[in-house]
Known about the structure:
Layout (H helix, E strand, L loop, with lengths): L11 H9 E2 L2 E2 L7 E6 L13 H20 L2 E12 L8 E11 L3 E11 L6 E14 L16 H25 L1
Antiparallel strand pairs: 1-2, 3-5, 4-7, 5-6, 6-7
Amino acid sequence: MEAKKPREEASPMARLHDRRSRGGTVQPFSVEPVTLIEEVFPQDTNAYDTLFGGRLLSLMDKAGGIACAKFAHREFVTISIDTLTFIAPARQGDLLEVTGQVVFTSTHTACVKVTAQSMSKSDWERRPICEGYFFFVAIDSMMRPIPIPQLTPEGEAAEREWAHAEELRANMLRNKAASKA
């Protein structure tokens, strides 16, 4: 009688890949946005009791990076920020709601549209204060770019965001090439 060979188990990553593959491409883990909420404290404000722009930028970058990590289950680093628009100030004591949503992907890069709103605790009404597009690249432990799952825009609004982010990326690459010339 022949002895049975032990059945080889697929690695956890192989099983994960099998579950997430459709047509040979790896699907995103999540396309849901990420939202961070912070309070504006005295150390976050300038002489006018309004939020430092750098503090807001830091929170927006963090929300964008977390959105990418949630989307692809990879480590990401920021490579570019584009069309950052400051709309209104946030004041000491306000709450900040910062939301990041992946709107575009290329082989190694994800673009996240990040919006920030302030809320006064007196009326809890949201007021837009800033928005921008943050580009991130996925990296391995040696800081080399690695592939990411690809986003498929669904719906007219998502397709418009995709096209806008794709145009921003093309401009970024042109500027990078021109600066090397």
